[in-house]
Specification:
Helix content is 51%, strand content 10%. By secondary structure, the protein is α+β, with helices and mostly antiparallel strands. The chain folds into 3 domains: 19-162, Butyryl-CoA Dehydrogenase, subunit A, domain 3, CATH 1.20.140; 166-299, Aminopeptidase (3-Layer(aba) Sandwich), CATH 3.40.630; 301-433, Malonyl-CoA decarboxylase, catalytic domain (Aminopeptidase, 3-Layer(aba) Sandwich). Strands 1-2-3-4-5 form a 5-stranded mixed beta sheet, sandwiched between helices.
């Protein structure tokens, strides 16, 4: 089926569905009323009546004042938990009589009623998107109210099933896409802000630019995650090389390097659901078939926590102070002595940051590093003058890095990282860390 007709049919299936869940007719004003509706929904047996009740619940939630969100989620945590005594009894029966039936009973007893509730809500027209936004409202409450993590665990469990790779559709987005989809790229882009429609056009229309996104049939006009790709002749060392408005466009025959320069998760409510690893590998595979001349797949990635870490690390104080002094000097990049000194100050710090600094779970402290290394990439090159904008200097002292995806070793690197915590890095970076 052609891309346009598929997208059209997906969008029509949602537009033609009832939209009562969006708030029309919602009359609940308290969490207590909403919880009562949820209880009735769980108890309902009829399919048609269940869908109608689910619509009512979602409409009432949409009409619920934000001040009642905490009470609602707290009641979900307390009123829809498994009964410990029943779980113990079912477990004892299974231990004494290990049969398919006792196992089935145990699994049904252990599962929180919240999951049944969420499944029924998902059956309502627009239910999937409504639940994604519901979790988006829940997430900010988890830090102060950790008891709500049991509710979040159920959202994450179900979303990982509903949004697994088998349900996702990959589209190459170009300037011919519907405006409402293109507008979402403007809205969601978080790495390198898209300033205008002309700016967006410059990222999706030229022959040496690509943009790919995953969509879900239940949310057909809203990308879940998208990646922007620059086709180049070599691995870039600075973001200005990617965005150079005066560049000569690279033709398909000339392109040897695909650069993933921006990856954006669009739906906050789907945090914890893994899309990026599938997206990059799928895009790399598709591009290698389309453009057999491509030999290198890499990123040009920000290092968002490096600046804060370096400024707070007492062992790095002198180096950071001197580095920032150099970066304030006029035309320091054109001065071979100053630029070499800046590199000598920054690179050892960066190598230590990536290869030695760890969280309590043994993983790197940098979130972008965890993402790419977890996907099987190699920490390939440090770029001390990668982003010299005010934001780039503040967040990372100008540092950007290239992660390289060697398609023949991606799975091997992924296994080494996940199983043994091995950070695969190029020899120059490994030597710096010593």
């Amino acid at each position: 089926m052609a891309r346009a007709s598929l997208m059209s049919s997906l969008i029509s299936s949602i537009i033609d569905a009832p939209t009562k869940w969006l708030g029309g007719g919602g009359s609940a004003t308290t969490a207590e009323r909403l919880i009562e509706q949820c209880q009735r929904l769980i108890s309902s047996a009829g399919e048609a009546s269940g869908v109608a009740l689910a619509q009512d619940v979602l409409a009432s939630y949409a009409a619920l004042d934000q001040d009642y969100h905490l009470e609602f989620f707290t009641r979900l945590a307390t009123d829809f938990d498994p009964a410990p005594d029943q779980v113990l009894q079912a477990a004892n029966r299974f231990a004494a009589d290990n049969t398919p039936q006792t196992l089935k009973t145990l699994m049904a007893t252990v599962e929180p009623k919240r999951r049944s509730l969420l499944r029924k809500l998902n059956q309502a027209p627009g239910g999937t998107e409504a639940l994604v936004h519901m979790r988006e409202a829940l997430l900010p409450l988890l830090r102060d109210y950790p008891e709500l993590k049991r509710v979040d665990a159920d959202f994450e469990f179900l979303f990982n099933a509903w949004f697994n790779r088998g349900f996702l559709v990959l589209y190459a987005i170009d300037w011919s896409f519907p405006a409402n989809v293109l507008e979402k790229l403007l809205e969601y882009e978080a790495v390198h802000e898209i300033q205008s429609w002309d700016d967006l056009k410059s990222r999706v229309q030229p022959q040496d630019r690509r943009c790919f996104a995953f969509f879900h049939p239940a949310m057909p006009d809203k990308p879940l995650i998208f990646v922007q790709v620059a086709l180049m002749k070599s691995m870039p060392a600075a973001i200005d090389e990617v965005f150079d408005p005066d560049r000569a466009e690279v033709t398909a025959e000339q392109a040897t390097t695909a650069v993933f320069y921006s990856i954006t998760n669009c739906q906050v409510g789907l945090r914890g659901v893994s899309f990026g690893n599938f997206l990059i590998k799928q895009v790399a595979s598709d591009l290698s078939r389309e453009l057999p001349g491509l030999k290198t797949f890499c990123t040009l990635s920000p290092v968002p926590g490096f600046g804060k870490w370096a400024r707070q690390d007492t062992a790095a104080t002198a180096a950071v102070t001197r580095l920032e002094t150099i970066q304030k000097s006029p035309d320091w990049q054109g001065d071979k002595v100053l630029s070499a000194e800046a590199r000598s100050l920054l690179e050892p710090l960066a190598a230590r940051y990536f290869l030695r600094e760890q969280r309590s779970d043994g993983q790197p402290i940098d979130p972008v590093a965890r993402f790419h290394l977890g996907n099987g990439a190699i920490l390939d090159r440090l770029n001390p003058a990668g982003n010299l904008s005010a934001r780039g200097l503040d967040e990372a002292l100008g540092l950007m890095v290239n992660y390289r995806y060697d398609l023949s070793k991606v799975e091997e690197n992924h296994e080494a990282y996940v199983n043994d915590g091995v950070v695969t890095a190029s020899k120059p970076i490994s030597d710096l860390a010593k």
